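Lab channel / #folding
Pinned by the channel admin:
"Please post every new chain as: sequence first, then the structure tokens as a reply. Keep commentary short and put observations after the output so the thread stays searchable."

First post following the new format, from NK:
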Amino acid sequence: MEKQWWQNRTAYQIYPKSFLDTNGDGIGDLPGIIEKLDYLKDLGIGILWISPVYVSPCADQGYDIADYYGIDPKFGTMEDMDRLLAEAKKRDIAVLMDLVVNHCSDEHEWFQKALKDPEGEYGQYFYFAKKKDGKLPCNWRSYFGGSVWENVEGTDWYYLHMFHKKQPDLNWENPKLREEIYKMMNWWLDKGIAGFRVDAIMNIKKPLPFQDYPADREDGLCNVGGILGSQEGLRDFLNEMHEKTTKPHHAFSVGEVFGLDDSDISRFIGDDAYFTSIFDFRQNVAGQTMLGWYDWKAPTPDEYKECCFTSQKVSEGVGFFSNIIENHDEPRGVSHYLPEYAQNEKGKKLLGMMYFMLKGLPFIYQGQELGMENCAFPSIEAIDDVSSRDEYQRCLKVGLNEKEALKVVSHYSRDNGRTPFQWNDEKNGGFTTGTPWLMVNPQYKEINAASQIGREGSIYEFYKSMIALRRDDRYEDTIVYGVTEPVLEDQKDIMAYFRRGEKQDILVIGNFRDEAAEVEIPELKGKTCQVLLNNGGTCMAVDGKVKLEALQGVVFEVK
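Reply from TO:
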């Protein structure tokens, strides 16, 4: 695989609505991002993914786009976006926009025209159908609950929406629609963005003709995510999009790809693949079932370790995964992956080290570098997320009481990652002088940027050190490009792996136990282990034996 400009960088995701509000309306904005570019530069960020700021009614927080060419006034203006791109360029930060093209908003001009004539030109931009023998075209359940088919009021027409009913799916079978999408993508690339994070892209190809699949719940519907493996032709769309947009612009693209067969990975990442990179969601989906959040189980440290090592194996020699522990659609990683006894500063740094030093492009989600945790939502009314509200009703339907349902939803809710950024310990965590659109996590008094920047041993400074180590000329070749070789895989709650470069070996080892551990790695006998990074405490590596304190993680150079 050829070396590329992005491979030694660290990426950062901003959820604009919750990052920084500069005008007191309770909603984060583009000027807020501009104001904090130096914060990101100081941390060591080289790529910035900005969640949607397009014109949107926000039925799904901006992922329902009403105008792909416009900035929503609540976030600012196109002039603000131009200034953001210019200021980011001065700091050598590449900017990615969110590309949401599986669906648009029902307020988009295309859909409004389609409603007037479902069988006309713009009707072909979407999926319209009528009942046949009293039945809808298929029994698919949308990601947010209920049928994927929504009635057009006052008519016998129905339209397809795999997500919210205000997010009608775009018909990628229509070449005119695809050309409109490519035109828009190239417009943004010409404007100066470095590329895209590509949303929900595995959904763009539907298994046609529409048909029923075996129901997986008592409602007679089947989970739409479970049928995507049966569609053919997806790769033709992805290749065409690449050839007509990102490839000629030499642009970066990272795909939100679920359900990919490991044998097919070389078509999705690597030299001249559909995407530059795709997110590694293997550990994120571990423990999930089709029944709903009430039936999900958070992975243990050993299950997390197994997921990471499997992904490293399948991507080696092919391309780079984008590695995460959280994003705007996930619970906070430290609350999801760490046992309760490990949810402290030392444990948070341990988890950060274990994922960050893997091969791939590390993504940090806003607040992760501070160790932000899940929010203790006082009631379902405090939660905004549409999927969380649907899952709450699902919990009640299967017999949980309100307290039990809230506990389940509070763990998995997407709003955990969407609570406002905690800048300081002042009112609203310094996020806004007004009333925040979503409650601020009450932990802002203890967990905030102001209390960590410059404080030795803080989580922020630890992340800063990891980013610096990854860019260090002495170790970059090994950490960025070296092979990952797991060791001690049978050791419970121990995660350890070598990063092997052409001239150097680095050992990354972490103890997820709540007690000290001693492990033996025969290869270390007769070798010297120099500590490059330590999340706290005393560590020893002598004569092939490594002693670690509880929750300790260490990066060694092995000589």
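NK: The CA atoms of residues 423 and 430 lie 5 Å apart.
TO: also worth noting, The longest helix spans residues 175-191.
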